[in-house]
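The freezer alarm interrupted the setup, so I double-checked each line after restarting. Inputs confirmed:
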Amino acid sequence: MARLTIPKEELLRPGHAACPGCGPALAVRLLLKGLGARTIVSIPASCWTVIAGTYPSSALGVPVLDTPIESTGASISGLRAAADALGLEGLTVVGLAGDGGTADIGLQALSGMLERRTDAIYVMYDNEAYMNTGIQRSGATPLGAWTTTTPVSASARGKAEPKKDVMSIVLAHRPAYAATANPSFPEDLVAKAEKARAVHGARFLHLFTPCPPGWKFDSADSVAMGRLATETGLFPLYEVEDGRLKITRRYSRLKPVGEYLSRQGRYSHLTPQEVDAVQAEVLRGWVGLLRREAEAGPAHDAPSASLLTR
Amino acid sequence: MTVEVLSGNHAQSEAVRLARVQVVSAYPITPQTTVVEGIAEFVASGRFPTQFVKVESEHSALQVCVSASALGARTYTATSSQGLLLMHELLHWAAGMRAPIVMGVVNRAVAPPWALGADHTDTFSQRDTGWIQLYAENNQEVLDMVLEAYRLAEDPAVRLPVMVAEDAFYLSHTVEPVDVPAQEAVDAFLPPRQGHAILRPGEPSRLGSFTSPEDYVLFRHELAAAADRVVPTLGEVEGDFARRFGRSLGGTVVPYRCEGADAVLVTLGTASTPARATVDALRSEGKKVGLLKLRLLRPFPESELRAALRGVGAVGVFDRAYTFGAAGAVATETRAALYGERERPALTSFVGGVGGREVTPSLVRRVFDHLLRGPEEGIVWSDLEPHRELETHG
Ligand SMILES: Cc1ncc(C[n+]2csc(CCOP(=O)(O)OP(=O)(O)O)c2C)c(N)n1
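Predicted 3D structure, all chains:
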C-alpha cells in the first residue's frame, strides 16, 4: 500500500476568507504542509491579504507580514537579513505573491532578490489575473483570455498578448532551486515544497492556482481544472536544480487543450481556429521543455578552456 | 572619545557603526553615496558586523528595513531627494508598522530640472508619513542625532521611525572636527534593541493585516498618541546624552539672542550658521534681532516654538524649499502654531537657499532688514538675483 506522504499538520486554519474552490487557498494549504511551522510568510496586496483573515484574527499557523504589492522580493531579503543578524535558527523565509505582484509590479524586487542569492523561497501563485481587484489582466494572463480589462467584442478577442514567461526570467538568474507545481497534484507540490525548504539560496516556486470566479467555472471543478492544465501540457510540472531541468509529471500523450479551454467562461468566445492556435502553442512549449530536459548538462557546467584565445 | 575630521556623511556612517545596527540596506544617490560607502568600508574591514543588503532600489531598501525591523533587528538606510520620493509608499508602511528605523536623509533638490544642491523639498513632502524628522546644523549634530534617534525610535513610548536630515554638500561633503565617542560609552547609552520584535518564529501572528474602519481608526489614534510623546521622550534622551557625553543638542527649538528681540528669524539646518553670525553682527550694530533654530519638524514642536517666540514683535521664517501653493512649509506650520497665542507676532515667509544656493550673511542681513521694515503677505523670495560676490561666512 502506498504511504501517505502528505503531512497531517494543517497550517491553513478554518475561518480563512477564500472563495469556494479557491486554487490559491488549496495551494498554500499544501505548500505550508511541505514547509512546516518554522516558516515566516511575507504577503503583498493580493487575494491572499484577504484569504489570511481580517484583523485581529489570522488563518495561518505561522507569522505573517503584510507588505505593499510590489515589495515581496525585498521583504524576504529583509526577513532573511534579520533572521541571520538575530541568529534565528532554521527559519524558512517565504514570500507569497500573486502573478500580478510578481510578473508585473514586483518583477524588479524579485529580480533583485534572485540576483542577491537571498536565502529564501519566493512563491508565485498564478491565478492569471489581478483577481483581488476584480479580474483585470496581468502580464501572466494567457492569450485570448477574457478579463474585465480585456473584454470581448466583435473586434476584441480577450487578451491580445501571450502569457509572460516568468519561469524563464527566473531561470536566467540561476536560482538554487525552481519548480512549477499544482495543487491538483498534491504529492508533487508537497515534495517540491519540502525540497525547496532543504535547499539553501534563492528558490522559486510557480504554483498554478485556478480561480472559479475569475475564470468563470464551477467552484466544484477547481481540482479538475488544475489536472487538465497539466494533462494538456499547458502547465507542465518540472523542477530545475543547479540548472538541470527535470519533468516531474511525464505524459506520452497530452489531452487536447480544447478540453481545458471549453470548460472556462473566460475562453467561451474562442473560435475553433483560435483554439487550434492555442493548441499549437502548447505543443511547441511541451516539445521545447522536452528538449531542455534532454540537453546534456546544466547550462553553467564549466566550459572548456579550449574556448579561450591564447 | 577621539576627535576625527569627518564629513556629515561619514559622521552618519560612524554613528551607524557605533549604534551596532544589525541590518543596513541602501541604494546609491548623490549626495548620500559616501554614507553607504563608509559603511561598506567598515564591513569589509571587519570592524562592523552587520547584514548589509545591497538592493536594486530605494523602495526595496526601505522594505528590507521594514521587514527586518518586524523581526526585531536594528536597521538603517540613507537616501536623498528622488530616492526618498520613491520610498513614499514604504514611508507610510514603516511608520504604520511602528518600525523604529533610522534613515539618514541628505536633503537635495527635487527634479526637474536636475539639481544636486541642498533643498528641503524632499523631506518636507514626507511630513505626513509618520516619520520623526530631525535636522542637523553641523557634523557633530549629525553623529549625535543618529545615536539619539535610535534611543528615541526604540523607546516603548514612541516606536516610530526617524529621519536625520543634513543639507547636501554643506554638511554631506564638508569636513569638520567631530568628537567620536568610544564604543563602550555608546553601548551604555544605547543598549541592544529589546522586546520590539512583533513577529516571532513559531508563533502565529500577523503584522499589517486587513482591518475594518472601526479598527483602522484605532491604529491612527495610537500613531497620534505616539507623536504626542515624541517631544518629552526626546527631552529625556537628550538629558541622558548630555549627562554621558557632556554636550547637548539643545532641545527641539534652540533660541539664540532672542531676549527682547524685535525680530526673530526661524531657520532649519545649515542656514542657521550664517544666520547666527548675522545676528551677532546686527546686535553689535544695536539692532534687536534673534535666531530660532528648529531641530524637530515632525512632530511639530508647537508649544516649544510658541514659548520661544512669545513677546517677539516680528517673526520671519526662512524656508529652504518652495511649497506649492502655500507659504514656506515651516512658515505655514509656525503660523498655525502661533494661532493659539493671545498676542500674535506678524509673520513673514522667506524662501531662499533653494536648490543649494548659498545662504550668505548678506542674504540674511537683507532678510532681517526686510523683516524690520514690516510684515509682508505671501512669499518673499529672498535670493532670485544671480549671486555676484563671493562671500565667506564669518
Ligand atoms: C501600488 C499598488 N497598486 C495597486 C494596488 C491594488 N491591488 C491590490 S491587490 C491587486 C491585485 C494583485 O493581483 P495579483 O498579484 O495577481 O494577486 P491576486 O489578487 O490575483 O491574488 C492590486 C492591483 C495596490 N495595493 N498597491
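Quick read of the result. Chain B touches chain A through 43 residues (CB under 8 Å).
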